[in-house]
From TrEMBL:
Domain of life: Bacteria
Transmembrane feature ranges: none
Protein's UniProt name: FAD-binding domain-containing protein
InterPro entries: FAD-bd, FAD/NAD-bd_sf, RIFMO-like
Region Disordered, residue ranges: 96-119
UniProt keywords, alphabetically: FAD, Flavoprotein
Gene Ontology molecular functions: FAD binding; oxidoreductase activity, acting on paired donors, with incorporation or reduction of molecular oxygen, NAD(P)H as one donor, and incorporation of one atom of oxygen
Cofactor: FAD
Annotated organism of origin: Aquibium oceanicum
FAD-binding domain sequence ranges: 5-360
Length: 579
């Protein structure tokens, strides 16, 4: 039996596990990833990669690769509602007028929200990892069958598809093993929330260009007497999924390829269109949150701790942000730069975000259903049986009035970029929280917030402020009169043995802001500074100079690294396990 020892083991090579593996590799942490399937996903489930996830992908070097295989921006411009592709159009929500990024998108992030199907996202992540990682880091066809914790470490047993078995001892485990998480079950972690119905997702190829008629829609919601559901445009041409609900009286095996072809033809509105079925995936719409995100040295991430309805496209995105929050903390603890208590802030920071996204996705689904626009959520016969033809005009008019009210379901920069943490490692500065609005992102550098994006010039290079944030350490941004802060940062980080960088934005030899008053955006005077964590969230802010910047920064870093958190009474790693 093979035995191995690593610092971190990741269970699951979905988008969340693969992102965790990238972040671990970036920080040089010895790691291993186990995936029970022989390869990445064949069925394209998730597809919306929001701007925040694209920023994280930018940091790990795969933003361009994801962009290359995404739906072109010009075809990711609206959400259509219709009786069938060939039938009457009921309404549209334009998310990008004229197929161009909105001014809000362009000013708030260096990265654009994209639609990249999961069967493309995962190979991009996998191939980039395989290029740079030791050969046996990624173990496809390896299922974790046992987990136990002892002596501040986790022991995993695996079985490979060729029946080989092995054991890994890891200091920490990231369980990104999906909605039916084996690890969550094995550790006895319960879930709150419930299921919202059962669905079928059909992945198929068909040339539907005749019916697209220059309509650049990402989603096509369909309502007619034979089917209600939603088409997801994967490449804007021939790759599609169609998702629809089915009732308790039916079973997944009722949905044969022939029946699915008929359903899709009804949704297209053409009985002779060629439909080449690739896969049929039954799935369950869930809105649940795990009772705990961590037990001892095991951390749940992604769908394992918050499976949520796809209404809003938040599942993969929320999970990617989970591991972005977690991995730098693990690295600081492993290197001895931070105490174990730093890891106890993962759950307090990520649970509110996971819970909010679960609730908001559920609200989106329920609001659609209440408005008669249930679509893939359920078949509302009151609508679907009366919506077609001249006699359906009144129903279509009523629904048309409801469509604009669904905007926050499809357009939500505030929900993603406005995430702000309140925790024991955020040093409050007495300013009130910025209220979170779904559709509008309000940039803020209040401690806890994602540090805002500003375009900067360094020499002849244009970069985002986000490009200054190095995942391996803290970054200090000071105003042009903030030399005492940058000097203090150098002194304190040397004394504490920390990696990091400090910039006097706008001063000679330092990055210079373009077109924007960055001090106003960051809430600083020219003598102030912010301390940004490796994950790009503000840890601390001083609006102006102080008499002892060394003492102020040292205290801020001690808080941000968890030195001021009281140690828990129970020994870490003492609980949980299947053997
Ligand atoms: C119709 C639909 C549309 C969606 N649209 C979006 C969207 O637009 N945007 C978005 O962000 N999300 C979307 N989602 C949700 C998204 O698909 C999930 O949130 C995402 O896949 C979760 O990623 P994950 O890595 O946490 O889990 P998963 O992708 O489920 O990956 C978990 C992996 O763990 C592996 N595994 C499980 N147990 C073990 C074990 N014991 N040993 C080894 N490996 C194991 C599994 O094989 C799997 O590969 C959508 C979902 C659906 C169904």
């Amino acid at each position: 039996m093979e035995r191995k020892k690593v610092d971190v083991a990741v269970i699951g090579a979905g988008p969340v596990g693969l992102t965790a593996a990238h972040l671990l590799r970036k920080l040089g942490i010895s790691s291993i990833v186990f995936e029970r399937n022989p390869s990445t996903s064949f069925h394209p489930r998730g597809h919306v990669v929001n701007a925040r996830t694209m920023e994280i992908f930018r940091q790990i070097g795969v933003e361009a690769g994801i962009g290359d295989v995404s739906l072109p921006i010009r075809q990711h411009a609206g959400i259509g509602f219709m009786t069938s592709l060939a039938g009457e159009e009921i309404g549209v929500i334009w998310t990008r007028q004229g197929g161009k990024p909105t001014p809000q998108e362009l000013s708030s992030s260096p990265s654009l929200k994209r639609s990249c199907p999961q069967d493309e996202v995962e190979p991009v992540l996998r191939e980039a990892l395989e290029r740079d990682s030791p050969a046996d880091t990624l173990r496809f066809g390896h299922e974790i069958t046992q987990i136990s914790q002892q002596d501040d470490a986790v022991r995993l047993r695996w079985t490979a598809t060729d029946n080989r078995e092995g054991e890994v001892k890891a200091r920490f485990v990231i369980a990104a093993d999906g909605a039916r998480s084996f690890v969550r079950e094995a550790l006895g972690i319960g879930m709150s929330g419930g299921s919202m119905g059962q669905q079928i997702g059909v992945y198929f190829k068909a040339d539907l260009s005749h019916w697209l008629r220059e309509r650049p829609y990402l989603l096509w919601w369909i309502y007619n007497a034979r089917t209600t559901g939603v088409f997801i445009s994967l490449d804007g041409r021939t790759r599609w999924t169609y998702n629809f609900a089915y009732g308790q009286e039916e079973s997944r095996s009722d949905f044969t390829p022939e029946r699915c072809q008929d359903i899709i033809r009804a949704a297209v509105g053409a009985d002779d269109v060629e439909i080449d079925i690739q896969s049929i995936m039954p799935w369950r719409m869930q809105a649940r949150v795990a009772d705990r995100f961590e037990v001892g040295n095991v951390f749940l991430a992604g769908d394992a701790c918050h499976p949520l309805p796809p209404t809003g496209g938040q599942g993969m995105n929320t999970g990617v942000a989970d591991v972005h929050n977690l991995v730098w903390k693990i690295a600081q603890v492993l290197s001895g730069s931070a105490p174990r208590e730093l890891l106890s802030t993962y759950e307090p920071e990520r649970r509110p975000v996971g819970t909010f996204n679960v609730e908001q996705s559920k609200r989106n689904a329920e609001k659609m259903a209440r408005s008669g626009l249930a679509g893939m959520l359920a078949n509302d016969e009151n609508v679907s049986s009366k919506i077609e033809g001249p006699e359906g005009g009144a129903v279509r008019e009523r629904l048309a009035l409801e469509i604009p009210k669904q905007r926050e379901h499809f357009d939500y920069p505030g929900q993603n970029l406005g995430v702000a943490y309140e925790s024991a490692i955020i040093v409050g500065d007495g300013t009130p929280p910025v209220p979170l609005t779904i559709e509008t992102y309000t940039p803020s550098a209040r401690p806890g917030s994602r540090a805002p994006h500003v375009w900067l010039m360094q020499g002849d290079r244009t970069m985002s402020s986000l490009d200054l944030f190095d995942y391996s350490g803290f970054t200090l941004l000071a105003g042009q009169d903030g030399r005492p802060w940058t000097d203090a940062f150098a002194a304190v980080s040397t004394r504490m043995g920390l990696r990091g960088a400090a910039y006097q934005i706008g001063a000679p030899g330092h990055p210079t802001p373009q077109d924007v008053d960055w001090l106003e955006l960051y809430g600083l005077s020219a003598s102030g500074a912010v301390l940004v964590r490796p994950d790009g969230h503000v840890a601390w802010r001083s609006r102006a100079a102080v008499s002892d910047p060394v003492a102020a920064l040292e205290e801020a870093l001690r808080v941000a690294l968890g030195f001021t958190i009281q140690p828990a009474t129970a020994a870490p790693g003492a609980s949980g396990g299947t053997d």
